[in-house]
Write a structure and sequence with these properties.
Belongs to the ABC transporter superfamily. Belongs to the binding-protein-dependent transport system permease family. By secondary structure, the chain is of the alpha/beta class. The protein is 48% helix and 12% strand. An eight-stranded mixed β-sheet has the order 7-8-9-4-10-11-13-12, with helices on both faces. The longest helix is centred in the first third of the chain and has 37 residues. The chain binds adenosine-5'-triphosphate (ATP). The site of adenosine-5'-triphosphate has 16 residues, from strand 2, strand 3 and helix 11.
């Protein structure tokens, strides 16, 4: 709740709307105790008194009644009717929607066709028909306004419920023997409540307007009782001669509806869990860069096509700072494959995404370092520069191709788009290239497969399409973030050999992120091991796999089961990786390391080594000739 309020107040417009509404509601609640004139007492001798006249702060209406008093009593009534109608419509509409969406089939059909019939009438005609049948009066206007809004809630909530009704957690509740009533109350309802609240917050203003409309037509509140609509209706005849009598209730309607709408938008944003981690804004097109120190000078990386120097990326979530990448230095040359390995949460993906400014901001910020492609620093580069390079010179392959491929476009069309985004070629040429790419990634019947939708392909096929997409513009660097984790071993082996062939044939540089030492051994020339956002060891694959120097690397390798090696006890690493918002000084692995000594817990431990081999450890498993590397 506190988090919700904090987010709501951070949105200035919503806060302003909320404050205005609060003032109006407080005034409406206090109206009976305020020293106001009788709102219905007529005084025809003092008709149309101007504002600020004696005893009438806002003047009087056509019957000499005090406008301020009528305004506050009218506001009280209008708010009460609007809120009551919204609660009534939301409760009934949500119940109908949940039942239709949850039970589906004939129940859904019957209910929703009834709702469709109601929606087929213009809502104001329907409201008029209901009031005509029930008779004029504010109570009946409330029923009419609520009734015409029930279909809106029913449709919305049904849609959400249909999506939830067959989710795994609902199936699990069914399997555990819960009845329909319990499932609806404990599994479905908590998930639809935010949608109901959002729909309500954005429709209350609308219902106040509709009630005012009915009163304006004389079908709502009856004389002498005032609500905002009836005040407007009565003032209609004097609109030109005495506009004040129309302006006063009109302005109040405007203030209330604007206040509710601004607050409603804020509530919607604050209830959206995706917005909780950052400010109420969409992510920026490129990660925010806030480098107080100048980028490190370019080092001689032996012909590296992509070189990261001391890259630091953080997530700023409220007052917490998560140091996801705490100074990573890496380099990859043409035709080389560099593996980045580490436990979940060690910062591998954030390192990779930072290169092209793809970490979502907010909350991500790059705070130091450089990422040089062909000598050009990409950190802080103009968005246009990054856009030109993204997918063209530096391409990504992600773990879940279903999440990256558009579900509604044929894979061929998506490849055509990727090509035409960076090259001026005709559609026919791009289509032909798309088919060639599908052939290169060994998709059988590439011509017909180009016309398939992603859901018509297997996971392995989709991942090949992901690789084809990355290859579309013949890039220099491919960053592959666990591209084979979701695949079975045979498809995994095919994809690895495909990537291997591509880099050998085309001189591609590959940065390959994985958890899997087996995969690293097959594909990578060199490995960088990450822990808590930092590289703790790097070197040639063979050397690291046979003689790991960092105790973390040794323990990671010891966790890997080996086929055909007989029974061997797998040694899990005790404890958990540290939270990157509370990193203690010294080695982040020390609390889990059996070799840790007091010296490991103080000060900065440098990545030290010689040539290509380096380790960040004071007591490494294998001594590496010391010559500080980073
Ligand atoms: N939006 C975010 N807000 C706060 N922290 C984040 C956010 N995104 C990532 N992090 C943190 O950054 C750290 C690094 O995450 P990252 O995704 O790079 O890990 P990873 O090594 O790639 O893990 P995995 O193998 O599970 O993909 C983690 O501690 C994670 O909790």
């Amino acid at each position: 709740m506190t988090q919700f309020l904090a987010l709501l107040l951070r949105n200035r417009l919503a806060a302003a709307g909320g404050i205005v509404l609060l003032v109006v509601v407080v005034l409406a609640v206090l109206t009976p105790v305020l020293p106001l004139a009788n709102p219905d007492a007529t005084d025809t001798a003092n008709r149309f008194q101007p504002a600020l006249s004696r005893a009438h702060l806002l003047g009087t209406d056509h019957l000499g009644r005090d406008l301020l008093s009528r305004l506050l009593w009218g506001t009280r009534l209008s708010l009460a009717v609007g809120f009551a109608a919204a609660i009534f419509a939301a409760t009934l509409g949500a119940a109908i929607g949940i039942i239709a969406g949850y039970f589906g089939g004939r129940t859904d059909n019957l209910i929703m066709r009834g709702v469709d019939m109601l929606m087929a009438f213009p809502y104001i005609l329907l409201a008029l028909a209901i009031v005509a049948a029930l008779g004029p009066g504010l109570g009946n206007a409330l029923i009419a306004v609520a009734a015409v809004n029930i279909p809106f809630f029913a449709r919305n909530i049904r849609g959400v419920t249909v999506g939830l009704a067959h989710k795994e957690f609902v199936d699990a509740a069914r399997l555990s023997g819960l009845g329909h009533g319990r499932i609806i109350l404990t599994e479905i309802l908590p998930n639809v409540v935010p949608v109901i609240v959002i729909a309500m917050s954005t429709t209350i203003g609308w219902m106040i307007l509709e009630t005012a409309g009915l009163s304006f037509l004389g079908l709502g509140s009856q004389p002498p009782q005032a609500d905002l609509g009836s005040m407007l209706g009565e003032a209609r005849s004097a609109l030109i001669t005495n506009p004040l009598t129309s302006i006063v209730p009109g302005a109040m309607i405007l203030v209330i509806v604007m206040g509710i709408n601004l607050l409603g938008d804020g509530v919607r944003d604050a209830l959206d869990p995706r917005l909780r981690s950052g400010a109420l804004t969409r992510p920026m097109p490129a990660t925010r860069v806030d480098r107080p120190t100048p980028p490190p000078a370019e080092t001689e990386e032996g012909g590296a096509v992509l070189a990261l120097s001391d890259l630091q990326t953080q997530f700023h979530v409220k007052k917490r700072v998560y140091k996801a990448v705490g100074g990573a230095s890496l380099a990859v040359r043409p035709g080389e494959c560099l593996g980045i390995i580490g436990e979940s949460g060690s910062g591998k993906s954030v390192t990779a995404l930072s290169v092209m400014g793809l970490v979502a901001s907010p909350p991500g910020v790059i705070t130091a370092g450089a990422a040089r492609y062909d000598g050009q620093d990409l950190i802080g580069a103009r968005y246009e520069t990054l856009r030109r390079l993204r997918g063209d010179r530096i391409a990504y392959i992600f773990q879940d191709p279903l999440a990256t491929l558009h579900p509604l476009y044929k894979v061929g069309d998506q490849l055509v788009e990727a090509i035409r985004c960076h090259r001026t070629v005709s559609k026919a040429e791009a289509w032909q290239r798309a088919i060639d790419l599908l052939k290169q990634v060994r998709i059988p019947n590439a011509e017909s497969r180009a016309s398939s939708f992603p859901h018509e392909m297997s996971g392995g096929m989709r991942q090949r399409v992901g690789i084809a997409m990355a290859m579309a513009n013949d890039p220099d660097v491919i960053i592959a973030d666990e591209p084979t984790t979701a695949l079975d071993v045979t498809v995994q082996a095919q994809i690895l050999s495909l990537l291997n062939d591509l880099r050998r044939e085309r001189g591609l540089a590959i940065v390959f992120i994985t958890h899997d030492f087996g995969v690293v051994g097959q594909l990578c020339d060199r490995i960088a091991v990450m822990y808590a956002g930092r590289i703790v060891e790097q070197g040639p694959t063979e050397a690291i796999l046979t003689t790991p120097a960092h105790p973390y690397t040794r323990r990671l390798i010891a966790c890997v089961p080996e086929l055909g090696e007989g029974r061997r006890k797998l040694e899990a690493i005790p404890g958990l990786p540290p939270a990157v918002d509370r990193l203690d000084p010294g080695c982040a692995f020390a609390p889990r390391c059996e070799k840790a000594r007091a010296a490991c817990l103080t000060g900065e431990i440098a990545l030290a080594g010689s040539g290509q081999r380096a380790v960040r450890c004071l007591f490494p498993e294998t001594e590496i000739p010391s010559e500080q590397s980073a």
